[in-house]
Each structure stands twice: as C-alpha cells, then as structure tokens.
Design brief:
Helix content is about 40%, strand content about 25%. It has a single domain, classed as START domain (Alpha-D-Glucose-1,6-Bisphosphate, Chain A, domain 4). Helix 1 runs antiparallel to helix 2 and helix 6 packs antiparallel against helix 7. The longest helix is centred in the last third of the chain and has 23 residues. The protein is globular and about 60 Å long. Strand 7 and strand 8 form a beta hairpin.
Length: about 325
Amino acid sequence: MKAGRRFAPGLCAAGFVLALGGAHAGEPPAAGAATLAATHRALKPQLENNVFGVPLYVESEDKDGRTRGDVYGVLRYPYATVRGALRAPENWCDLVTLHLNIKACTYAVQAGAQVMTFYSGRKFYEPPDRAYPIRYVTRGAEPGADYFRMTFSAADGPLGTRNYLILVEAVPLAADAVFLHFGYAYEYGTLMSLARSGYLATLGSGKVGFSIVGKDEAGKPVYAGGVPAVVERNVVRYYLAIQAYLETLGAPEAERFERRLGRWFDLTERYREQLHEMEKEEYLRFKRQERAEQLQLQRQIDQGVPERKPPSGPADQNVPG
C-alpha cells in the first residue's frame, strides 16, 4: 500500500467521486454497485496480502488543497445486517463516538433534511462545548438487495476547512460477507495547513500510517508519515468503529455501549504502532463521561433547544490523527 497510489490507477478515487456525485444527482444504485464490485476485483491482491492480516486496504491522497482517505474491507456479516445497522442516524451516533476525536454526536431533522452533528475535538476527554460541531446533511440511496450507500456532507468545519464528504457503501459478496468502503474527504486552506504543520512538528511527530513507502536496512516495512499518516489513521479508526458496532449487535442492549468501547479499543491495539494513544482504562473513563454529555445534548435537541455555534479554540484540537 502506498499513499496516493492505487492498484488500478484512478479506480478507487474515481469510484469515490462518482458515488458522491451520484448521491446528489440520483445515480442509479446499479451503477454504484457495479463500481464497488469492480473495485473489489481490482483490490483483491491487496485484500489478501497486507499489513493488517485481514481483508483490508487503505489509501490516502493530499493534493491541491484537498485531503482524501479511503478504507476498503471485507466484513463477515450478512448484507441485510450491515444495511440495517448503518441506515439509522442514531446508530451512527453510537458508532462514530468510539473514535477518539469525536466527543459527541447528535441528530435531528432540520428544514426537511436529516442533520447529524459530529463534535470534533482532541483525543483526550473534552466536553462538547469545547469541541467543534461539524454539521453533516445525510443522504442515502434507497438501499436495495445488492447495494447500500449513505453520504454525509458538511459545508464547513474548523480552521477554514470546507466541503466535507463522507461516503459509506457496501455490496454483498456472499451470504455472510460484504465488501465495505468508507471514504472521508475535505478541502482546506492556509489555517489548516499551518495547524497540521504544527501538529506534525509536535504531537504528531514520529507517528506513522499504514501505507508502506519502503523498507529499512533490516528489510522491515517503512510506513508513511506526515499528512498521509494522519489521514490513514483517521479513516481506519472510523472503519474499526463500524466493525466494533457490528460485532456487538448481538449483546444485550444494556451492555452494548460498554462492549463497543472495549471492542473498538482492542481492535485498534492490533495496530499499536499506528493507533495507540492511551491505555484502555483512560479511554473507557473519558468515553463514559462524553457519552453522558452526548445523551444530554440529544435530550435538549429533542426538546427543541438549538445547538450552539462553533467555538474558536486551540489550533491543534481539530487535527485528527
């Protein structure tokens, strides 16, 4: 795997652009299914032989003021289970908040559109009033028997970022397996460039991603650093949140939150070199606190209390990675 390069040149990136465009332009589900199935065929060698030890492929690109990261993987669940789990906004709020940088998530219908707010902040505990609320409008193609797609789009975010696009799509491979794609992209300007440079010179210094850019003298892989590493760590954390959510659906409802937290942390520890940030007890402790605050936010929204406006805060708080 190498950041900015693809097994079939342009295939994965083109699929991301087409799928996102189709979500807004009414692309027939059959076209999205065909594109994703073609991507699966093209990536089969990488899915079978990679650093993850499971069928997973990551790529990233940072070019001309736009950052993009994509994860493709095979999940051993029936298509109907995956489709059912990913359709509902409330499920996404349970899912995305497993990510270290997402402090809370709320959902509401505004002007006829389904809007979800991801409160983006630092990796350690942070109350939602210190995080930046990114408001996504969600859209989904009518989920059919052979293709699921859902998109999240936000006009702006912290530090002058804009045009956020998240794409989640899946096709069945067998009775008990799906091929899933999670894509994340945004545009940025000078403020984010400066913030990322500061992050990479301090907190993010020495951290690596998943793309292999070479080998050292001992023949061991050398992983991408810099912005590609930031992007790759971010999208893999989201993908593992989807996996953890699916893996804990069978638990009693009262136990699912704790099970999800534990499972997500354990999954990230498989890739400790890239994803380790803290010990498990610290993660569990601050996520429990953030969960209570999220539920309070959602209750206020349900009662008609408007969400607050974005704050200004430290420049490094919104550089996930």
